[in-house]
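Please, structure for the following, as tokens.
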Amino acid sequence: MSASPEPLGAADDPDGQPPLPPAFDYARTVMAWSREPLPERVVATLGQAYGPHRLQRFDVYAPRGAHAAPVVLHWHGGGWTNGYRQWVRFMAPHVTQLGAVLVAPSYRLTPEHPFPAAIDDALDVLGVLRERVAEWGGAADRLYLSGHSAGGHLAAMAALSQDARRRRGVRGEAIRACLPLSGIMDLQAADPAPGSLEERVYTHVLRGLDAAQDVVYSPLSWTAGKRIPFDLTVGERDSARVRRSNQRLHALLAAQGVPVALHEAVGRDHFQTHLDLRQADHPWYARLAALIRRTS
């Protein structure tokens, strides 16, 4: 039997519980799934450091005997204020079944660590994997970036931040594609309504920063000249903010001739777009497999 998830505690989550009941239900579900045993064919290596902070860690799930395999990085969600890398573990049997290595990073959370800490962490883990991913049978130049919600935002920022990646020794061609789920691609919001998720971004995530920084930390602002294929997923019942920002990102990339697709999960909400990946036959895995074949 593969390794069990490492013990969890409040110290792993500086901001406590998810803020809304649907988010709490989602967190409870994926955490329960994380405690299930993995198939014998999956080799789990947990808690690898890419920095000194307790949240600068990543877990690796590799097919037994992997060599020069594609590597899928999937960042957890949680509004940049909460969440665990263990929320990604349930995807391991399905990603490794495709012959790929799955890497699940955690990252420093707001408001204790304001932006750009989480974005810096997403880029730093790429730099460390460039040196180490071969230890688990992965290929450092075959990286596929993904994530859910806030994690989808981080995946997109890491994919589009070409110069910042280069400073960490990660070549542009190493990032083969980006496949975010319900990612938040635009942090800009004029006069957000009290109690809304938009207000939470300003009061928790961008707290203490100049108001103009919302555009700097939005993936929509970084599309010019980029050629990385994107496969975007939103739920039909996702928030207007998520749906609109993904539609705009799709339009900006398509206008430059970038291979990009936008998929709407019919009848699904913000959390179900990730929960649905519990099913091995979910179309997202087929699209991932197709991208791996096409870009390898």
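Residues 10-295 form a domain with the Rossmann fold fold (CATH 3.40.50.1820). Confidence is low (pLDDT under 50) at residues 1-17.
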